[in-house]
Amino acid sequence: MNQPIKTIAIIGCGPRGLSALENVLIALAKAETKTLPKIIIFEKSSQLGCGAIYNLDQPDTNWLNISERALTIAKRPTLEFENFKVEGFKSYHEWTGKNKDEIINNKHEVFPKRSEIGKYLKARYNTVAKTLEEHNILSVFNAEVIEVENNNPCFTITVKSGKTYNADDVVLTIGHQETECSQQLKNWLKYAKNNNAVNLFLNPYPIKHLLSVNYKTEAHTVGLRGFGLATIDVARAIVKANGGNFEVVDTETNKMKYHPGESSLKLVPFSLDGLPMASKPLNSKIDALFTPSDAKILSFKSELLQIRDNKNYNNGNTFLIESIATVVAHQYIKLGNHAYQHNFTEKELKVITEAYLQDNSFTHDLILSHDNAPEVIIQAYVDMATATKPISLDYCLGQVWRHCEPTLYAMMSHSKLKDSVINQVIALDERMKRYAFGPPIESLQQLLALTYQGTLDLNFVNDPDITLKENGWQLQKHNQVITVDTMINAVLDSPKIEKVIAPIVTNLLSDNLIQPIHSKLGVDTQPNGLVNSNNKRQTLNLAVLGRLAKGSVVGVDAILECFGPRIKDWANGVVERVHDKKTI
């Protein structure tokens, strides 16, 4: 006889945990469930609903890379139960207090601070949690879970203090987890422990840890490992701590001038390819230049549908490259005079796009050359994002890719394609994030201002040789050498489940309760989020949602995905199990 589901455990309560809580309640209400199961939440942070990424205590220098216009987090409906109701909550757009036209047709896109989104998420969580706690349905434990043990028919959940709790249905929504350090970082850690003259930070967040160094009155040269969004946040925070400030000198393009603090400061970023992120378009009018028609998106979806369940497909990500190149070529033709001057047909543009997607080193007159100095590339991205200069094919591709991502993620998640094929699809999506996940124009204008003033040194950005010296890390590129006394790792590792060192994950792996979908990816899960364990004869009421399921799910990093269909699928599955196993 099946064990009744009396208790649901949600482990991790950032945005995805909040969404899991809301969606399971929505599904229970729709099913007119009379006796609600108990819900227990485990979250090591005191700020429930927002998690570490959107916590309220972070500095204003941490910016979101999604515009206010694109933050289409839907409202929560009012939920009616037998003895009480959970009040609804506004959509993000409604919550801002701005009218629709102000959000959509803003001359300059607004990119909120991450703490601002945190305020929304926390308020949204509080309104649902308060009601559930008052009716003895929800219990919250501010504790880190280190183990989830399968004691058929239920699970035993152990927290760091050693206390244990039982649950019949468990979902992990724990987001980014610490991974094993690379050999380079291990060597640096050993070096820094034996050298009081240097500072090493293995993680960019929380940024307040980085500010333990005195940038205000002491001279520092800082190495920034990575050249992505985290690096920009870190650079902003450090120059602010130094006493520097930015002055906008052109309100049309947000061009800036940087005024440094009194003490000497040099920031030296570097990455494997040295390529900067491309900024998103200035406003919705310019973004419309890159927005495919509904018909084109539908055609793209149809082409992916033809492949997604083909277990025998064995040609890597070629199907995706060919499908999206069709959309990009059409859109580039539509740019007209906004595009680089050319005489290529749509068919020829498709071939060029495919070549670039197949090989990042492919060069063409329509593609912005990687050989340009980084500040030249950054300026070109700003010019294209403001539509003040002609637009390259690769920039157009990146923005079209962003618009196609929701369709791509929906079609590729839980497909029947080989794991090796999905790995190549994800690898291409990761590569395109340099364009599609780019920051606001203001971020690139700040980088340019810092470069021209001299605080940001981009001479070592492309994979320098690094030697450990007595007084710091010596970076060398061509004939130039610089030594940094402070090193910050601003690279966030991908969620290779076998590299994660968080106890909750290592214990699940050692107990054979979870398995990776691919050696380079996350946990193998079903469409309803339930894990596929090594024990094929056993169906576990254990689900993994979000970043740790990368591979089973394609597209896990965007906040909108936290409130997306994957969470609804899991919640509906829970309620089916509740109704299947107990009287209602």
From TrEMBL:
Top-level lineage group: Bacteria
The name this protein goes by in its record: FAD-dependent urate hydroxylase HpyO/Asp monooxygenase CreE-like FAD/NAD(P)-binding domain-containing protein
Occurrences of domain FAD-dependent urate hydroxylase HpyO/Asp monooxygenase CreE-like FAD/NAD(P)-binding (ranges): 9-177
InterPro entries per record: FAD/NAD-bd_sf, HpyO/CreE_NAD-binding, L-asp_N-monooxygenase_NS-form
Species: Lacinutrix venerupis
